[in-house]
Amino acid sequence: MSANRPEPGTPMVMAWRKWDGSPHWNNHVVYLGADGWGDWVGQPIGWRSHRPGADFIAESPNVTLVPRDHTDFALTVHRGHPRDLRVYIDLAWGVRWSDDSLPSTAIDMDLDVVRRLNEQGTYVDDRDEWAEHSIRYGYPVEVVTHLEARALELEQQVRAQLAPFDDATADPWIDRLIALGLDR
Q1: pTM for the predicted model, two decimal places
Q2: Is residue 4 in a domain?
Q3: Residue 1 lies inside a defined structural domain of this protein
């Protein structure tokens, strides 16, 4: 573990913002540890995620990977979600850890890759929000080009269930989260 990482089991907040710096999601999580893919945090059942105008309580245990080698997404994997949600990838800008042991306030870039365990399957979500915000925030052309291609690439990797988007990579982290017994 890197010197600037918290001890496993440490509660923390993953803070997100929008391109213009305005606040977005704050996810209350617990640090779980790291592997070759990056750092993992978890959100037990009953823990809070909130942003201006919305407040949610986790309905299923979920873990989020803050990738070591990629700063353009964060991967969240759920187990037993009531709406069959398994994988949710937030495309982002600047996902990385800060010097004070907290994930940096990554920029949410609207596009998401979703995998549901029902007839909806795997798809890229929020294309309408992406189009609207691309204009509103004036996303640079190179950012738009990169993230549109990245969304399609991640969608294919999720469909193929390539690591770290497979069950075998995330499930041990979900088991570790559940073993902490932090559900509310």
Answers
A1: 0.94
A2: no
A3: no
